[in-house]
Every structure is written in structure tokens, then in C-alpha cells.
Amino acid sequence: xxxxxxxxxxxxxxxxxxxxxxxxxxxxxxxxxxxxxxxxxxxxxxxxxxxxxxxxxxxxxxxxxxxxxxxxxxxxxxxxxxxxxxxxxxxxxxxxxxxxxxxxxxxxxxxxxxxxxxxxxxxxxxxxxxxxxxxxxx
Length: 138
What we know:
By secondary structure, the protein is mainly alpha-helical. The protein has helices spanning 10-28, 36-43, 49-54, 58-73, 81-90, 92-101. The model has no long low-confidence stretch (mean pLDDT 76).
């Protein structure tokens, strides 16, 4: 039975000190934190089939990892879907701009010459009216 008034002997005072040293050594040996890539590789099987199939493409997988790294840097808890959705909504325009950077912009075709009317002579040189020659199918 423990007695708070009992004086401690020399052996009893050294044992707790040794125990605390062992505890501090265990605390110093924290397990290595898993990287995002390792966690995603481990979690891929639990993802829905549609996402799992898309992650087979290395470009999509790398983009997925980059977004996860940015979320982690901003302190988003991956176990909270609400926090992830909130982060995605806050960064939506930024993410779309990054995605559009890889896709070339479609430009409108502008004709520099004069516009050809239906009843004008055809520019191919046949001598017929445009509506009877090259403009027939339009």
C-alpha cells in the first residue's frame, strides 16, 4: 500500500528517474509521418471506382497529389469532408485557372478579305454565282 508520509529510500528515488529516461527515449522515437503520396497509394483501393480509374492516369494522379499537398499545407483535416469542400470552394477559381493553363485557348476565325454575297461571282473563278457554285451546300 502506498503511504504518502513514508520517506523514500535511495533505490526508490533512482528507479523513477530511470523510468523517465526510458519514456523520453520512446517519445523521441516518434514514428515517421507518412507522405501524401504514400497515404494516397494506401487509400486508392477504398476510393470509388470512378476516381480509382481516373487515378491510373499519371497526370491526374499528380494533380490530385498536388492539391492534397496544398490542402495539408493550409491545415485542412482530411477526415473532415466539410473542411475539404470548404477549401475547394475557396480555391475554385485558382484551381480552374491552373487547369486551363494546360489547355490551349480556342480563337475565333476572322476573315480579312471582303465578305462574299450570295449573288456575287464565285471566288473560285468558275464564272457562276456563289450561290450556284461553292455556296450551294451552305
